[in-house]
Amino acid sequence: MSARTCHPPVLPRRRQLGLRLSFGHRVMVQMPHTTRDNKVVPWGDLSTGYGNNDLVAMHTHAVSGSMTMPEGSLHPIPQSRLRGRENRPEPVAVGTIIWLASELMFFAALFAAYFTIRNVTNSQAAAAGTESLWQSQGNLINIPFAIINTSVLVASSFTCQMGVFAAERAQVSRTGSLFNLRRWGLREWYTLTYLMGAFFIGGQVYEYSELISEGLTISSNVFGSVFYLATGFHGLHVTGGLIAFLLLMGRTFLARTFTHEQAVSAVVVSYYWHFVDVVWIALFGVIYILR
Asked: For the segment 137-183, what is each residue's pLDDT rounded down to a tens digit?
């Protein structure tokens, strides 16, 4: 009786799932194809989310039957990356709000230092019968120019929010003429916001150069110290927002599919931008107007 040769069963190619792990290796495993309620279904069209999940980019997402193949993508992706998860807050948005709350405490400390130093300085000047430092040095500030610079920054919040509306409807770029603002997408609105923010930073640099030429530096007196610290730290935050805009827009050019993750990134960048705008309105009112 001849010995029978046993061969391991060969899995059909369409039933194999290629997993490319984060360290670059690819492992072929057999995965059952299921729906969201864990029922096995026949293999179908990838565009419906029920198909062969070959070469899935795992990243931090678990493999499930809820996969989809958007137009232009190289591999299927989880539905959660494309449309998000229902009834769940976005961790990135929640984390950004908590971080902005800590930033608010930082600027609150700057405001407290400003008011304390101003009150002490004014009291000492009143007791000595001399002109207050806030009156003499405050006159060096170019109020009309500061109003124009502030108006540009405040207006950038509106253009930023228009970009958020475009991201929410998944419109990355314009669908019509450049002069048709109603057809603008995320890139156009955020590019305009970036230019307006860059104008504000350029105006602040110009203002600093004018004040330094008139003898007001960060070390000249206590007014110069609190003025440059408060407005300078805000300028650094605006610069950080400009970098975030560049990274976000660059990501839209590199990615083949505009996912829910990119839309969330656009929203949290707008959170940050609105925050620096509101902080500047408070700084402008206290330092430039009330003095």
From this structure: 888 999 999 999 999 999 999 999 999 999 988 899 999 999 999 99
Q: Could you tell me if 151 and 194 are in contact, meaning their C-beta atoms sit under 8 angstroms apart? A: no
Q: What's the pTM value of the predicted model, to 2 decimals?
A: 0.72
**Cβ distance 100 to 83 under 8 Å?**
no
* CA nearest neighbour of 200 among 249, 261, 159, 166: 159
Going from N- to C-terminal start, the domains of the chain cover: 17-61+70-77, 91-290
Residue-wise pLDDT tens digits, 251-287: 888 877 777 888 899 999 999 999 999 999 999 999 9
**91-290 is classed in which CATH architecture?**
Up-down Bundle (1.20)
- Rounded Cα gap, residues 66 and 71, in angstroms: 16
> In Å, what is the CA distance from 228 to each residue of 4, 57, 257?
88, 48, 43
**Residue 161 and residue 273 in contact, taking contact as beta carbons nearer than 8 Å:** no
By the 10 Å C-beta count (0-12 exposed, 13-18 middle, 19+ buried), 30 is classed as exposed
Which residues of the chain fall short of a pLDDT of 50? Answer: 1-65
Of 59, 152, 105, 95, the C-alpha closest to 267 is 95
